[in-house]
């Protein structure tokens, strides 16, 4: 069973923020922003490439609720999902990073455009 399935099943602890029948939201163990919450479907899906449109529609509403709860709905936030090896996905259970609470740097994405790496 993957690490996020264990969190869903309360087999390992997490700092939970919100939960419904389909999703949970909990604070990232190693936050990279003042607010850094992970939104995870309770049913295991490997990555964004495999998710259904139906699940994404529900997840959209859930993410919006997370931003209201954390107070970043008005100030702004970044929503990221890393997909697969080149995307840098480390946990292979679909999750969205909801990050905000400060003006976020754009990191390597603000560097010079890549020239056919
Ligand atoms: P990825 O690189 O797969 O998009 O992101 C995985 C994220 O999960 C990382 O930001 C990492 O800090 C977080 N993470 C990994 N293991 C745990 C855990 O056991 N608990 C919590 N709360 N976050 C975790
Ligand atoms: Zn899983």
UniProtKB/TrEMBL annotation:
A motif (Histidine triad motif) lies at residues 93-97. InterPro entries: Histidine_triad_CS, Histidine_triad_HIT, HIT-like, HIT-like_sf. One of its GO terms (molecular function) is catalytic activity. It comes from the Bacteria. Residues 3-114 form the HIT domain. This is HIT family protein. The active site is at 95 (tele-amp-histidine intermediate). PANTHER family: HISTIDINE TRIAD HIT PROTEIN.
């Amino acid at each position: 069973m993957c690490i996020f399935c264990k969190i869903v099943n309360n087999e390992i602890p997490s700092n939970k923020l919100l939960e419904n029948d389909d999703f949970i939201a909990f604070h990232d163990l190693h936050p990279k922003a003042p607010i850094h919450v992970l939104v995870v479907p309770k049913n295991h899906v490997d990555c964004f490439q495999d998710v259904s449109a139906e699940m994404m529609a529900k997840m959209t509403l859930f993410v919006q609720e997370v931003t209201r709860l954390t107070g970043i709905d008005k100030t702004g936030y970044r929503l990221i999902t890393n997909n697969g090896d080149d995307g840098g996905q480390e946990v292979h259970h679909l999750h969205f990073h909801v990050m905000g609470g400060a003006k976020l740097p754009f990191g390597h994405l603000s560097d010079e455009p890549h020239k056919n790496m």
